[in-house]
Structures are given as structure tokens and as C-alpha cells.
Amino acid sequence: MARVRVKTEFDLDSPTLVEGLPGVGLVGKIATDHLVDTFDMEYVASVDCDGVPRVAVYDGGDHDVLAPVRIYADESRNLLALQSDVPVSRGNGTEFSDCITGWLEDRDVTPLYLSGLPAQDLEAGDLPDVFGIATGDAGTRLEDAGIDAPPERGVVGGPTGALVNRASENDLDAIGLVVESDPQFPDPAGAKRLLDHAIEPLAGIDVPTDDLVDRAEDIRDQKERLAQRMQEASEEESTQARPMRMFQ
């Protein structure tokens, strides 16, 4: 049965979840991995939903086997993180988005869904633009945080798009964050911008991010193979935002 399997019970009060499915520039994954590592978040649940590949993940220097998609918790910060080491396909219709959304609703979680917007003309030193969309009543949180609305009509695709769609259908409070990103390579600068400008104020947390830029080359080396896989992935697997004019 498709479900989120809780391994360790945790006590959070209407928490915020940061989603890190792989996509353009791997910005969501890099940002979420940074939160998990920086805050030493606890592995509390595995995601066993349709669309998640049946593979086993292992780490260097550790005998334990991990699920490819996992949920971590930080009780002191009232924070959850969805970490994925593999591309996730929407696969059979809406099963994956239904599985995740039902679990979030049951625990009164507000998700922050993260996407990259391919940007071809960013110069070195330029700050990537970040904008937000919302479902339910979450739009007020974007306004309070000073996060701009999109400058033009567009679409969020891949599994993250399916999650935003399902949140809207269920009238769940959810936020979609989109940041300009490198369309070819892992983009730590885009992830830093997401954390500094959007995730920090929306989740009410303070995240040190200077090392994301200091370690940019190492991060790119670590994520390069997955980034290449995402470039080759179908639209169903790759989370990204695109202007609607691309379809007209």
C-alpha cells in the first residue's frame, strides 16, 4: 500500500515542510540537503508512494540502507524536510501527489514546494530572482515575507507541479517558490538565494548559507551526475518552472 511510513514519532505543531525533489539546477535538492545537514535533522519517515523508484540508498562509512525519498524533522524549529536522492516520476496518474498531500493534510503541514526556472542570461554576481505562488490561504505568508508574485504567466511541471496542483485541488495551504537557476549545472547560488530570501522568512528559521558558495565547486562535483540525469529526464520527472509563452 502506498504510504508514508513513520519510523520515529515526532511532535510538531502545524510545521513547515521544505520539499527537495530534483529538478532544474537541483536548487530544491541542494537547499533541502543543506537544511538536513546543517540542523542535523532526524530521519523520521520513508516515502513509499507510487512514482518512487524501488532502489536502496547507502552512505559512505555506514552499513545502513536508506529509502530513496525520506522525511526529516527538527522539533526545535518546527520544521520538516522531504529529501530525495532519485528523480521521482508522477508515474501512474496522481498517486504520488495524493500520497504526499494526504499525509501533509493529516498533520496540518504547510509545504514549501521548490522549483528552478531556467535562466540563460544571469551574470556572475547577479542575484537570481525569486517569486512565489500559493494555494489555500498561504498567499498572505508570501506577502508578509515580501516575496513577489510571478512577472508572467507560467507553469510548474514534474512531480512538484503535481504536488502544487493537488494542494490547490484540496484547498491545502501550500507555497510554491521559483528561483532563476542554471539550466545545465547544479546551482548552489540559486539554492542560497532560495534559503536566504524565501525559506528563512517563511519557515521562521535562521540558516547559515555562506558555505554554499564557499563549497560551490564541491557541491557541483557531488551533484553533477544527478544534474545530468535530470537534463535527460522526461518532463514528468524533472521539476521546473517555465513561462507559459513556451507553449504558445
Automatic annotation (TrEMBL):
Q: Which SUPFAM superfamilies match?
A: Cgl1923-like
One Pfam assignment: PAC2
Q: Which GO terms describe its cellular component?
A: proteasome complex
Keywords from the UniProt entry:
Proteasome
Ranked from the top, the taxonomy reads:
Archaea, Methanobacteriati, Methanobacteriota, Stenosarchaea group, Halobacteria
Q: Looking at the record's lineage, which domain of life comes first?
A: Archaea
User: Could you tell me which residues belong to the region Disordered?
Assistant: 222-248
What organism is recorded for this protein? Halobacterium litoreum
Keyword Transferase found: no
Q: What is the official name of this protein in its record?
A: Proteasome assembly chaperone family protein
